[in-house]
Design goal:
The chain is an alpha/beta fold. It contains 16 helices and 11 strands. The strands form 4 sheets. The chain has a 5-stranded parallel β-sheet, with helices on both faces. Strands 6-7 form a two-stranded antiparallel sheet. 24% of the residues are buried.
């Protein structure tokens, strides 16, 4: 059986270098043709001004295409497309083409100061044609390869070396959830039993198995890192000329984009690197908050006046509800809302629910349409909050949830928001904390300026009782889960009782 598997894998050629070379050649041809076609069009548009000869044009185009190809390679446009998304490559293509354009404009002004219009037109046409076609080609290649791998073609065969059920499960979950990656685990090597994978041998058999099976890649996944053993396994793989990858023992803490830094010659992994670590992104977000909150305060002043009068008439007590919340870096601040409940003694620990008896009739109305949260624009202006971000919680619940919910405190690495990714998905009020934290972390890890704009634009359409609908669905799901567990428990009891006879 092993011999058959080995023969099958050895019969498959590694076309990585051929594909990469073909990719580079096609890009060079695209850029060359785009430049030459643009040259012909420009000669028609500017017959008097554009007098560069065909031979000279071909020479210049060839040099520029070689420079572009060099920077395509330098900025990793030809990295394997197996696990990288379309945006990775599109962004780099735009970066290189923009840089090449800037350099070309400089050269044009340097050499043709008296006649730049024709040459700039040539350049613009070239960049537009080349960029669109190169991006389309890259997207088509990625889509084709992914569909091919989803059909079990162009597969990479992986040998897993592990003694950890948890690490093996984590790796296999990613493999199974992403068939477009085209990975197939043929089995594992280890000294302990791992459920769900064929056991091919112990770590002492690794060298022999590599010679027999010739996998495309070996993956090491251990709970604890033993330098001597890891070095031994790496040496065995190197001696067999087989690529080796290591799943870090702390992979469970990688909830943000991975970033490797250096301390002298020592590599360090920053496990909490996020887009908002970049100071320009933080400044952009803060400017958006200040300008946005000022505009929204002006636009909602009539609504605030209406709500303030309604709160005053609905029940005795202050118009504004002030409550201590936990914000960025675990610092406490006072958050403002229009009061929607009767004055009570559980303001610091009470959590509002759908049928909360503390709510006034007018309070229920303003909560339904999120009018109670309008004063938080002043919190944004002060710098305590942001327009978009994780919702802040009272100190009582922060202390409670940080002990119960994994990675709960990561939400406090940035300013809390009036709205956020969790809120527009209906996770407001009395809803699942774990689901809310998952969405908050997803927002932090993948923040973009346009993502904030999108959340702000769709918030008004998501504000009406979305949390109540979510809570109802979640309660129904929990009831179904309880019924299934009850059925499963009854069945297992029956099997147990039956086995005693």
């Amino acid at each position: 059986m092993r011999k058959e598997a080995s023969d099958k894998m050895n019969s498959k050629k590694d076309y990585r270098y051929l594909l990469s070379g073909l990719d580079k050649f096609i890009d060079y041809c695209i850029n060359f043709l785009a430049a030459f076609v643009s040259y012909l069009i420009t000669k028609i548009m500017y017959p008097a001004e554009f007098r560069i000869g065909n031979g000279r044009a071909v020479f210049v185009i060839s040099i520029l295409c070689l420079i572009t190809s060099f920077f395509y390679n330098y900025y990793n446009i030809y990295l394997p497309m197996r696990t990288r998304g379309v945006l990775f490559f599109v962004g780099r293509i735009l970066l290189v083409n923009s840089g090449t354009t800037a350099f070309s404009v400089f050269v044009i002004y340097l050499l043709h100061q008296n006649n730049t219009t024709a040459y700039i037109s040539w350049l613009i046409l070239t960049v537009i044609f080349a960029t669109l076609v190169v991006m389309a080609k890259k997207i088509a290649m990625i889509s084709f390869l992914r569909s091919l791998r989803a059909r079990k073609r162009n597969i990479k065969h992986i040998l897993l070396v592990t003694d950890s059920q948890e690490m093996a499960d984590a790796y296999m979950e990613e493999i199974l959830n992403n068939p477009q990656f085209g990975y197939s685990v043929i089995g594992y090597v280890g000294n302990l039993n791992v459920i769900g994978l064929p056991h091919l041998g112990t770590t002492g058999d690794l060298d022999r198995l590599l010679k027999e099976l010739r996998p495309d890649e070996v993956v090491l996944a251990f709970d604890t890192v033993r330098k001597r053993l890891i070095t031994k396994y790496i040496t065995i793989c190197n001696n067999n000329c087989i690529k080796i990858m290591v799943v870090p023992a702390i992979c469970g803490y990688f909830r943000s984009p991975r970033q490797v830094t250096e301390l002298g010659n020592l590599p360090l992994i920053d496990i909490r690197s996020t887009p908002l670590d970049n100071i320009s992104n933080r400044v952009l977000k803060r400017i958006t908050d200040v300008i946005g909150s000022l505009i929204l305060i002006l636009l909602t002043l009539p609504l605030m006046l209406f709500t303030a009068i309604g709160v005053r008439l609905s029940s005795p007590g202050p118009i504004l509800f002030r409550q201590t919340r936990v914000g960025r870096n675990n610092r406490e601040f006072t958050m403002y809302k229009f009061r929607s409940m009767r004055v009570n003694d559980s303001e610091t620990t009470g959590w509002s629910t759908e049928n909360d008896p503390r709510k006034t009739r007018f309070g229920a109305f303003i909560r339904k349409f999120a009018l109670d949260e309008l004063p938080q624009f002043f919190n944004v202006l002060k710098g305590d909050m942001s327009l978009v971000g994780p919702r802040p919680e009272v100190p009582f619940y922060v202390e409670k949830f940080k002990k119960e919910v994994p990675l709960y405190m990561l939400k406090h690495t940035l300013r809390p928001g009036i709205t956020g990714l969790a809120q527009v998905k209906g996770l407001r009020g009395d809803t699942s904390i774990q689901a809310r934290i998952d969405e908050d972390i997803n927002y932090i890890e993948n923040w973009t300026f346009w993502g904030d704009i999108r959340i702000m634009l769709i918030t008004p359409f998501c504000a009406v009782n979305r949390h109540e609908k979510y809570a109802a669905k979640e309660a129904e799901a929990e009831q179904r889960k309880a019924r299934r567990q009850g059925t499963s428990h009854s069945a297992s009891e029956g099997e147990k009782n039956g086995s005693e006879f």
